[in-house]
From TrEMBL:
The keyword Nucleotide-binding does not apply. GO terms for biological process: siderophore transmembrane transport. One of its GO terms (molecular function) is siderophore uptake transmembrane transporter activity. SUPFAM superfamilies: Carboxypeptidase regulatory domain-like (SSF49464), Porins (SSF56935). InterPro entries: Beta-barrel_TonB, Beta-barrel_TonB_sf, CarboxyPept-like_regulatory, Plug_dom, Plug_dom_sf, TonB-dep_rcpt-like. GO terms for cellular component: cell outer membrane. Residues 427-901 form the TonB-dependent receptor-like beta-barrel domain. Residues 122-229 form the TonB-dependent receptor plug domain. It is a multi-pass membrane protein. It comes from Spirosoma terrae. The lineage of its organism: Bacteria, Pseudomonadati, Bacteroidota, Cytophagia, Cytophagales. This is TonB-dependent receptor. Residues 1-22 form the signal peptide.
Length: 930
């Protein structure tokens, strides 16, 4: 959509609002605390039966527009205070309203647990919430990082601009088992198959609330909500009007032990944002947002030797076959006669990636109220940024962009929504591939001539072998250091003009010949929901909904087999939910069910059943049975990448059509057994008889096409008031998982694997010996079942002096049962973790503070970056803190804060960087020019 179309759309909405403008009035007033008589900023005021609403400014003032017909009923709410309803008959006199403090947050309203508004205490499953005040007062540098203080959350940091959230085990740096929605929109780049933290999300100025639903949520949210869902809501331009500006400046890398691996001293951090919203006569409103963050990323400098072919005691800098964790290019290894195993000299990650990262977010929305109860919305989002992401390799997500459009029609009982996501990888690249490719640009033969890249590795090892063997003049033989120096003659050195030229050239080449990554994948999604409760005369609360999603994959053959055109596939789903209250509203039963069908897989039904028993208004018990499933990502289904000795092949049936791989291949293990047996017999009985003697060791593979993962989970919980100022929330869950997606290797000979007698074919066995065979790494599922369980406990205590103290703890346990460890996804979750928070909103006039302490136990991290070999994540603790000073007359808040105040450099996933402290000061000007 071009600029002219945007202008015409805005003009059209303006004309319609002018022609259909209904008579309305403004209700004004102030909201105050009854004890201190101080104004309450951030209280929400809505008009009953209408979509109009607003929030109080820093002076507690509000002005809300409403339809003039009859008396106007206002609902006023604010966290920490009891909600109040006021009927207004005289709109000429300003109102003065006092809210009574609440002893707990039990009356908080949530949507995520059931997709309808309900009291937090009556939610059928565990749910956590951050409201606008919690977001504003978080001690973390951003609201997204503050989510880590909610109970049950695991947050993994891959870099300054990229953090990944997970709940209830099986964490990863790219979490495709967890759904993240912003205003109902899935903000994942379709090519990734998961949301890239908040890189393409909300700015702090536009974030209104966050709801976290841990555990299987597929019954309501579909296949992506396998381990949970994070639901973020932006600020409505009718409710939150005016100009808001954030200026945040800070420093990181103080006393960085890795400073010798990069720029020295402290680095400057900047995060600036602006938001403007305006409403016209309660009919038409718009908002515009822009934010830009930039800084120096954390260094990944873990150079531990992880070569598994070398005994542990022989690993290290002196190991000729050293494979440093964050060194790339040294994965290329050969066994040389007389010298043993030798690896190429690699390049440090700091010399291959750009640690200067940024995040740009631009978005706007146009809202038009067709009637007081019917609203149309168009929203546009564009985000672009750079991050260093730990996946199967360390990737520089460089200049990656995501463009989104959303159209929505929303009423009191329904919504219909359409949105699209389109990604562009721009200058992204694989740092490990880059290191290997640079190593192939400078190698010289024994005559001093630079060889072509396809001969570089062989030539380098030949030079090494010759030098080590003592055949090179003036080079000491039997000396690994001397042999490496000779083989490395002409090596490009980081920082030189030649090195930078090759680095830039190779990152621009996409595919196996370079290091660049091409992904221009997109998806569009349509969904809707209708609440039938009123239509059914409130006999029960009934909710129905459904969705349709289309994927369009394009990598121009660099990852998928799509040079001939885009790969298209779709999925759809529908759900229904029925809730009914019994026993004088003390017992609430809810049953949900959802059916989903992906074009490439069988349909799946995911039910959920729950019960909430409210013994009194202070004590609420819940129990639920939940199910979930996860569809394979686009890469799981459609990757088709020939990397020479092996072809990586996604598990969708159409992806291998005509290749005869699933139908005609042997297992890798049986091929190894056949080779060993043949080698032992060949000199005894000759090659032909050795084949016949050992061919029956070959085993035809029986690899199923890929299918979704599954989970069945049971949960019980309690939320209530133990005293007038102490609230508690506790839960326990137990889940059984199966069908984990994994890889397996098979070999396809040219001949049929079975003969006419149904036994292994001697001709196929001969193909293996003659090299007429191709290896494939297939995506499939493991039949093994495993279990995970856990519990959380959270306490909130409010003192009479206004302090709020919170503490929560999480216990997680993994039971592998009788499963093969190679067939199970990595749990990657500490057994124990805890958070403690303390804060006061008015410790002194206009001064508040908040402190959060996080600790977690050590555990083993298993990921594809280190070839699924466990690596330690030591126990660590983080202390975040902020103190703020409010200046009501200037509508400004000054905040001084720190992430990781004690500057502990901690690693949160094996192979990712060590993250230190970030210290900042910010000024936020809010709701000006209203």
């Amino acid at each position: 959509m071009n600029i002219k179309k945007y202008a015409l759309l805005c003009a059209w909405f303006w004309l319609i609002s002018t022609l259909t403008l209904a008579q309305s009035v403004n209700v004004t007033g102030s909201i105050m605390d009854p004890v201190s008589h101080k104004p309450l900023a951030g209280a929400t005021i809505t008009a009953k039966g209408q979509t109009s609403g607003t929030v109080t400014d820093n002076n507690g003032h509000f002005s809300v527009s409403a339809n003039r017909k009859g008396p106007i009923t206002l609902r006023i709410s604010m966290i920490g205070y009891e909600p109040q309803t006021v009927t207004v008959t005289d709109t000429n006199a300003p109102l003065s309203i006092y809210l009574n403090p609440s002893v707990s947050e039990l009356d908080e309203v949530v949507v995520g647990a059931s997709r309808v508004e309900e009291r937090l205490v009556r939610a059928p499953v565990t749910i956590e919430k951050m409201d606008s005040r919690s977001i504003r007062e978080t001690p973390s540098a951003t609201f997204y990082e503050g989510i880590n203080n909610l109970k049950g959350v695991d947050m993994v940091t891959s870099g300054l601009t990229y953090r990944q959230i997970n709940t209830r085990g099986f964490a990863s740096t790219g979490n495709s088992r967890f759904l993240q929605l912003i205003d109902g929109v899935d903000n994942q780049p379709a090519g990734f198959g998961f949301s890239v933290g908040n890189m393409f999300g909300l700015s702090d100025l536009d974030a209104e609330s966050v709801e976290l639903v841990p555990g299987a949520a597929s019954a309501l949210y579909g296949p992506a909500a396998f381990n949970g869902a994070l639901l973020m809501t932006s600020k409505d331009p009718f409710t939150y009007q005016g100009l808001s500006v954030q200026a945040k400046v800070g420093v990181n890398h103080l006393n960085d032990p890795n400073r010798n691996a990069g720029p020295t001293g402290a680095a400057i951090y900047n995060d600036h944002a602006i938001r403007y919203a305006k409403a016209f006569n309660n009919k038409l409103a718009f908002k515009l947002n822009a934010s830009y963050m930039w800084g120096l990323d954390w260094f990944a400098t873990h150079y531990t030797d992880v070569n598994q072919s070398t005994p542990v005691e022989q690993r290290g800098r002196q190991n000729p076959a050293r494979n440093g964790l964050n060194i790339y290019g040294d994965e290329v290894v050969r066994t040389l006669t007389g010298a043993g195993q030798v690896s190429r000299t690699g390049y440090l990650e700091k010399d291959l990636t750009d640690y200067n990262v940024y995040s740009l977010k631009l978005n706007g929305a146009l809202h038009y109220r067709i009637t007081p109860a019917l609203e149309a919305i168009y929203a546009f989002n564009y985000a672009k940024g750079t991050a260093n992401y730990t996946g199967s390799n360390r990737f520089s997500v460089n200049g990656f962009s995501l463009t989104q459009h959303r159209l929505e029609l929303r009423g009191k009982q329904f919504f219909v929504r359409w949105y699209s996501n389109a990604e562009d990888s721009h200058d992204s690249y694989n740092t490990r591939s880059l290191g290997q490719q640079i190593n192939r640009t400078w190698v010289r033969d024994l005559n001093g001539n630079v060889v072509t890249p396809d001969k570089a590795d062989d030539t380098w090892f030949s030079r090494y072998a010759a030098a080590y063997g003592g055949t090179i003049a003036n080079v000491a033989g039997n000396n690994h250091t001397a042999a490496r120096s000779f083989a490395d003659q002409g090596r490009l050195l980081p920082g030189t003009t030649e090195y930078e030229a090759q680095k830039n050239r190779l990152t621009a080449i996409q595919g196996l010949a370079g290091a660049g990554i091409l992904s221009q994948t997109s998806m569009w999604h349509a969904d809707g929901q209708y609440n039938l409760t009123s239509a059914l005369n409130n006999v029960a609360e009934v909710l129905v909904g459904g969705n349709f999603r289309q994927y369009s994959l394009f990598t121009n053959g660099t990852l998928f087999d799509d040079k001939g055109g885009r790969i298209l596939y779709h999925e759809y789903g529908a759900f229904a939910q029925i809730s009914k209250a019994f026993l004088a509203d003390k017992l609430k039963l809810t049953v949900s069910g959802r059916y989903d069908k992906n074009q490439n897989f069988a349909g799946y039904f995911t039910p959920r059943a729950s019960a909430v028993f409210s013994a009194t208004d202070r004590h609420h018990f819940r129990a639920s049975y939940q199910t979930g499933f996860r569809n394979p990502t686009p890469s799981d289904q459609f990757i088709k990448l020939n990397v020479g000795p092996i072809t990586i092949l996604g598990g969708a049936p159409s992806n291998s059509a005509g290749m005869d791989v699933y139908e005609n291949s042997y297992t890798a293990a049986s091929v190894n057994q056949f080779g060993a047996g043949f080698g032992a017999d060949v000199n005894k009985v000759g090659p032909q008889q050795a084949v016949l003697n050992n061919k029956d060791k070959l085993q035809k593979s029986n690899v199923p096409y890929i299918a979704p993962e599954r989970v069945n989970s049971f949960e019980v919980g309690y939320r209530g008031l133990l005293s007038s100022n102490l609230s508690i929330d506790a839960n326990y869950y137990y889940g059984v998982y199966n069908n984990f997606i994994l890889n397996t290797v098979v070999l396809r000979p040219q001949s049929p694997v079975l003969g006419s007698d149904g036994k292994p074919n001697p001709a196929a066995a001969q193909d293996i010996l003659s090299g007429r065979v191709q290896a494939f790494q297939l995506y499939t599922n493991a039949p093994d079942k495993v279990a995970a369980q856990g519990a959380t406990l959270g306490l909130t205590y409010r003192t009479t002096g206004g302090y709020q103290i919170g503490a929560n703890g999480t216990w997680s346990a993994f039971d592998i049962r009788n499963a093969d460890p190679n067939n199970v996804a990595a749990f990657n979750t500490p057994r124990f973790k805890t958070n403690v928070t303390i804060g006061h909103r008015n410790i002194a006039p206009n001064i508040g503070f908040n402190v959060a302490w996080h600790w977690q136990e050590s555990f083993e991290w298993v990921g594809s970056f280190n070839s699924l070999i466990p690596g330690p994540v030591p126990a660590y603790h983080l202390l975040d803190a902020q103190v703020n000073y409010r200046m009501p007359s200037l509508k400004t808040v000054l905040k001084l804060g720190a992430n990781n105040l004690t500057n502990q450099y901690v690693v949160q996933s094996y192979g990712s960087p060590a993250v230190g402290g970030l210290y900042y000061v910010s000024l936020v000007f809010d709701q000006g020019l209203k």
